[in-house]
Design goal:
Largest sheet: 5 strands, antiparallel
Helix content: under 10%
Number of helices: 0
Shape: globular
CATH architecture of one domain: 7 Propeller
Radius of gyration: 18 Å
Number of strands: 29
Order of helices and strands: EEEEEEEEEEEEEEEEEEEEEEEEEEEEE
Length: 328
């Protein structure tokens, strides 16, 4: 039976989550809540390696490490400043963990000791730039992604750029996207290409990493988007044949089909997220789980062979869920 960790917002970020939640899958394919694995404020993004789970404390501005003490329990064993305000994304990099700070666009690097516990803030790289949208008055780093041992990408929603960082977090190059794009999330397609989702322009970009720079391969409009929506999260189904993204506002999950080589995307349609504000979603085999933050619920959908989604059962109650992480 598959176990899951769920992060989200606590009172300091106007949510109700008491800490990292433990869930498990059911025979029907849905999830059921086990309980609170550890109390911690606003663990809105999670990462796991071995017996350690790492979380941002978005309101407090720290990166925390938790050691697994049981199948569904955790204990804090380390903490460090994130280097900026509102940390929201993590990635393993340079024998540590890189962190994207949304409010001020700072990318930080925290260290790990030999056991895997977080130790201290090691480096920071401050972003710059802005965009034409009212939400782009300053840099807003939203995601970090390692494309190799010595190369980290950071996605800046505020400056419409994907930056290339070298060891020490030095920003060595960048790829500019059209003004007002608002890039938010990045994921590697099974083809090796990189998909970047825009929060503001409702587009999915296909990028190629050449080994020294990024280039745009193609882009497509996300189906179902309406004015005022905020896009979120990327999941791959059927080995990358289908791509799912979320639309917060209209509360939809969009479906696109990728070409065999991953270079082109075809919009297929959308379904209701069966909740309010689909902040994140994750695939488990042929089931897509959707964290609906504002309705305090997680909905589970069966994916058909044609990529279509069908709700399995009524969504379950989980307080302010922001992020779903399958336990390893």
């Amino acid at each position: 039976m598959t176990s899951w960790w769920v992060g989200g917002y606590s009172e300091d970020m106007t949510g109700t989550l008491p800490g990292i939640q433990a869930l498990r899958s059911t025979d029907a394919g849905t999830l059921e809540l086990v309980g609170t694995a550890v109390e911690t404020p606003s663990p809105s993004y999670l990462l796991q390696r071995g017996d350690h789970v790492y979380a941002v404390a978005e309101g407090e501005g720290t990166v925390d490490s938790f050691r697994r003490t049981g199948e569904h329990t955790l204990a804090r064993d380390g903490s460090a400043p994130s280097g900026g305000r509102w940390p929201c994304n993590l990635e393993f990099f340079e024998h540590g963990i890189a962190v994207a700070n949304y409010f001020d666009g700072v990318v930080g690097l925290v260290g790990l000791d030999e056991s895997g516990a977080v130790t201290a803030l090691l480096d920071t790289e401050h972003g710059d730039g802005s965009g034409p949208h009212e939400r782009q008055l300053r840099p807003h780093s939203h995601a970090v992604f390692a494309v190799g041992e010595t190369t980290l990408l950071s996605v800046d929603l505020g400056s419409d750029r994907v930056l290339v960082h070298r060891p020490g977090l030095r920003a060595a190059a960048s790829l500019s996207l059209p003004p007002g794009t608002g890039p938010r999330d990045i994921a590697r397609h099974p083809s090796g290409l990189l998909y970047v989702l825009s929060e503001l322009s409702h587009e999915l970009f296909v990028l190629r990493w050449t080994g020294s720079s990024l280039e745009i391969v193609s882009s497509v409009a996300v189906p179902g988007a309406v004015d005022g929506d905020s896009d979120s999260a990327i999941s791959f189904g059927a080995g990358g044949r289908y791509v799912y993204t979320g639309l917060r506002g209209s509360n939809r999950i969009s479906t696109l089909r990728a070409s065999e080589d991953g270079t082109h995307l075809e919009p297929l349609g959308w379904v209701s997220s069966e909740g309010d504000w689909p902040r994140h979603h994750a695939i488990d085999g042929d089931v897509l789980h959707v964290a609906n933050q504002l309705s305090n619920s997680i909905a589970s959908f069966k994916a058909g062979v044609d990529g279509t989604l069908r709700l399995i059962a009524e969504p379950i109650s989980v307080p302010s869920p922001n992020y779903l992480l399958r336990s390893v």
